[in-house]
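Protocol step 4 of 6: structure prediction from sequence.
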Amino acid sequence: MRYVNSDRYESRRRLTKAEAKARTRELLLDAAAHTFAQKGFAGASVDEIAEAAGYTVGALYSNFGSKERLFVELMRSRAGDRISEAIQIMNDEAGDGRRLRALGQLLVNIADKDLDFAPLEAEFWLYAVRHREAMKELAPPRPQHDALRPVIENALRRRGRDQEVSADAVSTVVRALFQGLVRQRRINPDSVPEELFGQALYWLFTGIGANGSRGAPAGAPEPLE
């Protein structure tokens, strides 16, 4: 299946150089999404991806450098879309209850509908475990991390907890919680109802500062009794 046609070629000739490059990357990512979903990370070849996008293998390498890098960019693009939607929900002027319900619905939608990338995420994780140099590629890029931090800071500030813990630490926990619940819902949907993520966030933020954590170093864990 090819992802370009004569109309797209015509429109691309009218683009600036920067726009044309961005369009090339977009088409290669679209083709990669389809090819990886069909054949997996290991089974998909750069030749197939390039052909599906209507470009040469050289164009793929000049834009991404490798199949691994292309896959990482694809996964980061999906993750960036999720983070943007979550940030929009958390910045909503609605009350906490409505925001938490919307976040729960977002998690359910990803777990139940974004099924093509569930096995790919797992497959690339295994690849990275076996190829340690690829592990660093799994870390979220700084722009995504920085975009989430002020939202977490605002949530902590509203609860008077912003001086007690690090927003970066809380962001890490929120990410891990979201990813873990998505996977658990895919395994057993009944164990992760729509409202669970919102409830878990409520437990997290109301628990911060409990049990005498005031005055503890920002982000420091409490010692076990």
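Step 5 (inspection) to follow. The chain has two domains: 1-65, 67-210.
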